[in-house]
Amino acid sequence: MKNLFLSLLFFCVLMLSPASYAQQSENHVKIRLLAEHASVKGGEEIWIGTEQMIDPHWHTYWKNPGDSGTATQIKWDMPDDFLISDIQWPTPQKIQYGPLLNYGYEQQVILLQKLTLPKDLPRGKITLTADVEVLVCKEECIPEYGTYTLILNGENAANEENSAYLEAARQLLPIHNDWPLFFDVDEQNFSLKITIPAHLRSHIQLDSVKYFPADWGTLANAEKPTATMNGEQLILTQMRGQRPIEKLESLTGVLQFAANTSDSQSESTYNINIKATPSWMESPAGAVISEVMQVMEYPEQGELNFFKALILAILGGMILNLMPCVFPVLSIKALSLVKIAAKSPKLAKAHGLSYTAGVIASFVLIAAILITLRAGGAQLGWGFQLQNPIIITLLGYLLFVIGLNLMGFFEFSSRFNNVGGGLAQKDGLTGSFFTGVLATLVAAPCTAPLMAGAIGFALIQSPFIALVIFSALGLGLALPYLALSFMPNLQARMPKPGAWMSVFKQILAFPMFIAALWMFWILAQQVDVTSASAALLGAILITIALWLLKFSNLKSSKKFILRILAITLIVISTAFIPLTFPSKPSLHDKYMVIKGFGDTFSQSALDKALEGDDPIFTEMTAAWCITCKVNHKIAINIDSTKALFAEHNVRYLIGDWTNEDPEITKYLQKHGRNGVPLYVFYGSRDDVTKQRPAPKLLPQVLTPTIIKKIVEDKP
What we know:
disordered N terminus; single chain; 8-stranded mixed β-sheet
């Protein structure tokens, strides 16, 4: 926008000048269209060149013009079945103008494009036209326009041969290579690090090294770069530009340097297309993560194999530990580990293994049930258990009771040590095992980043492979506590046992109460008001029952009566579990539809939208999915995204999977997913071919920038 504004400003100033009309009558750039050869046949690919002959002391611009200017625009008019590639840009020059530095061309340049001809080529002369717009500058800048014609298979086609001329132009294009490239960036500078092949390292002329960024705002263009050799790496450092650091996800451009080709003084100039990634990707672990991130960005099934799915599962399981419900559970076991590690490091390891066994066993059990039900024809996916109001209510009760226990409202007696939350509170190995079970139960509603690809891959494999991947998911969830229990150095950094533990234990009760509230909120999305209120009343009755059990000092007869009364209240509370209350269609996020932002998803609605030309954005979500809620709040339901969708006529469809919905389940499976969130973008139809590009899957963690990039089709 900045470059366009400057160009328009220059143009307006010139138009107000009486001399501007005379200047525009004679173009400072002579344009000519050239074909590799003019005699062509069907199915052939040929190079097309747009030659610019530029007057002395004038210049035109590269694809990134630098501090000012506008790149050359070429718009072709040709039949629908003729295909033309993007412009192949030669390496530009640095053109200084006062405090500004631009990237462009002087004297002469040829912009190449690859033309693909249809197999059924029309007979006779073929006429192709191109509208070319060039901004040419000296002290002043003048936009020049023209329509130019290229004739193929004309009368003199056999005599029109430009292959050698265009081949020479091709030699000026930057080459692609597989050299390792990384970058660092801070508030002031950016550093590009390139691993140079051994035969060139001692021959590079450091004062010749230049970098031409493909994206505006990456560098302070006019600042002088510094090039050094550090072992096998060439490091180029330059002051960074105006683009915010968080938007520097990768660097693309052209690296140019001169090097002696041998011991003689002859030298060659190298022009290399580069794409650099952040330097933390330089480590072996970073390389693996980089590959995983690519799968995460475009998670089509064909890109996954068993090894990648295992990595995704372990990493996704580790991320689950950051979920609001799981973290307090992990903290509970960390508290017990403080006491255990101080007494017996060997016992601490046993507790870590027991906790891990509980997590993995739970994941395998849930996966086995899911696989069995799907084999029976049920349309279910990951998180299916959270679509059942009965399970939601029981989890709400369990989390609420654990919160009461942490708060010190009651203590489980020995008779109840094998019940519910008491199992998770025991100091023995059984307690650690059932804490793992509890952690899995409260983590189950979520599909963490990286998990979806692994789960989708697992559920289209054999049951054995699927269970192995789900076991890896459980291992990832258990890994932080397991590592803590096996590493004395980490245990030594933990605070010593003391009175603070009692206070901290009570503090952990509050996240449990919040988690219980969340479960009852989900229930309210699934059932009617009467059912949700009955479940809350059941929680109150359970609280009364636990309070009655606290009176242990009474006479046996009175104690027996209180226990009978407590058991009766618990039985009554279970009757309030909505077994007979019918579920209602979930209203999760329907308020967005009511307010005019989006429409309810259905396959028929999507099919109808696909018949049109406009782009489409689908969001598959659920009330019990924390990741979904956060994404919707910070990336979708915001003014900038609403304005973006309105500007590009994006049709927005919301699919709610809070309750079981076979249609949404099929849609998830179609895209290799078995859980939410899922975000799919369908690009608009091409004006020429009338075809839509393949749908694109967005990452599971969204930002406004990610949505903006995919809607605006930015690389």
